[in-house]
Amino acid sequence: QVQLVESGGGLVQAGGSLRLSCAHSGRTFSRYTMGWFRRAPGKEREFVAAISWSGTSTYYEDSVKGRFTASRDNAKNTVYLQMSSLKPEDTAVYYCAAALLLSASDYFSRPSAYNYWGQGTQVTVSS
């Protein structure tokens, strides 16, 4: 059983930055494609970013391209989401998710493709 624990959320002013972390408890972290999703109040969960299990490919939702960067440190079993130029509309609970050996990029944005989910961390951006 894999456990994912997010951290790094908080309150930040518009234009500011935050870095989210997600620690993966398993011993085969390097075999998991990792995704970031978010759910804003009153809205559906949406895809934010993903990084392939190899770390060589990243994918982003259009509204965060150029502002958010996903990365991973396989030695630390951790994936990161660096968020810059934050906007009030980025306010949401952010979740990380893990998908074992997922390589088809068409599926990276699909919640159903992920096997494990974290509990979420709140990000609030004030205007």
Rounded to an integer in angstroms, the radius of gyration calculated over CA atoms is 13 Å
N- to C-terminal distance:
40 Å
* Poorly predicted segments: none
Question: Care to count the β-strands?
Answer: 11
The chain-level structural class is: mainly beta
Number of helices: 0
Largest sheet: 7 strands, mixed
Residues in helices, as a percent range: under 10%
Secondary-structure element order, N to C:
EEEEEEEEEEE
Mean pLDDT: 95
**Percentage of residues in DSSP E strands:** over 45%
Shape: globular
Question: What are the SSEs and their pairings?
Answer:
Elements lengths: L3 E4 L2 E4 L4 E7 L7 E8 L6 E6 L6 E3 L7 E6 L4 E6 L8 E9 L15 E2 L3 E6 L1
Parallel strand pairs: 2-11
Antiparallel strand pairs: 1-3, 3-8, 4-5, 4-9, 5-6, 7-8, 9-10, 9-11
Descriptive terms for the model:
4-stranded antiparallel β-sheet, globular, 11 strands, 127 residues, mainly beta
Structural notes for this entry:
The protein is 0% helix and 48% strand. It is an all-beta fold. The strands form 2 sheets. Strands 2, 4, 5, 6, 9, 10 and 11 form a 7-stranded mixed sheet that branches. The mean pLDDT is 95.
What is this structure, in a nutshell?
The protein is 0% helix and 48% strand.
